[in-house]
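Hey, can you fold this one?
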Amino acid sequence: MAGLFKRLIPRRFRKDDTVIPVVRLHGAIMSGGNQFRPALNLVNVAAVLDKAFGFKAAPAVAISINSPGGSPVQSRLIFSRIRELAREKEKKVLVFVEDVAASGGYMIALAGDEIIADPTSIVGSIGVVSGGFGFPELLKKVGVERRVYTAGENKVILDPFQPEKEKDIDFLKGLQHEIHEIFIAMVRERRGAKLTDDETIFSGLFWSGLRGLELGLVDGLGDMRLELKKRYGDKTRLELVSAPRGLFGRRVPGASSAGLNGVVSGLATGLVEAAEEKAMWGRYGL
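Sure. Predicted structure:
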């Protein structure tokens, strides 16, 4: 009878084992997103993080990261929210890298008190990149005249339908440098004396988890299940914390509403974002 009663108690409240909540942060980091292609950003993960850190008896929160990067703003917002919750709830944060935690993905990984990667994971890419396309001759070829009216001489800086200007490129590079310095400061603050003096760490290069351990970018090599059982005992159980579900059972990371126009727009936007995301993953051979 006691065994039956025990099974009726939710696992997280049982006293004979340790439950570690697990949050999966996977995908390219960008604002927006829609029901067709959810994005990794603060709006979409805030509720999941709050729920995971709400496990009162859990000594730690495990976060699985698999991201090639993306928006530095969203990366910093997610990083900050994790650290804020860790201080508020007095929880240790253990980050586990799967395929890749690069660029913004590594920025989020810095929220961990420890970072554990697979030897073949990709980590690093501590840098800033901006990309796009230029079409200065396209409109002439198709017989279209572009008309742009501005108040402010720099409102059309880096316009893809105009030839590049040296001063515009210099301005963009200056902006990138500022963001890069912020990223570097975060790495130095969080990794501290663990970092080696290798000057390539902040060059934008990326490495395997094995080399990342040598450089001080990660703290250990291993996988989540074995590592957590080693730390908290054989009875340790991992409980995946998922996003809330909508009316039809789909996970809904953020609130949204869309009519037919929104659906069509979402599909079109999703195709563009899918191409961009594929290119981001492709940089790391994934």
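The chain has one domain: 2-128+177-282. Let me know if you want another pass with a different chain boundary.
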